[in-house]
Amino acid sequence: MTRIDFYVVPGTEVRQRHLIACRLAEKAYRLGHRLYIQTASSRDDALLDDLLWTFRQNSFIPHARWPGVDDPDLPVLLGHDPPPVFLHELLIHLADPIPEAFGRFARVVEIINADETVRAAARRRYRFYQERALTPVTHQLTAAEEELL
To answer: In whole numbers, what is the pLDDT of the chain averaged over residues?
Structure first.
């Protein structure tokens, strides 16, 4: 059964959601997990790709944009297309639509903020997961907790 977690960050900045995605990706990578970060657009792909290199000094997360790199051993892939079929551990979801392949992942992380458009889409996804007998867990992050991730 897929575990669903909603991380709610304060503020309305897209960058804040991307920073949390980077921190969670770093944590998952250090624990030996492989993951896909699904963004909303090619612009977000580029922003997140750059941020994964710079978000924390001395941090290294081997990653590539999908599609483009077809390496099933690469620990982190990101893109706005549906995830590759060879990934199934963790999906960090930053897009509005319900992720088509959510059910094949052990865990799905939804990162939302106070932007009303982002919240409305998150509410639809939350109800969607509940209708499939899943129990999403919500984590309200404070600024201090964001730093701990």
So the answer is: 92
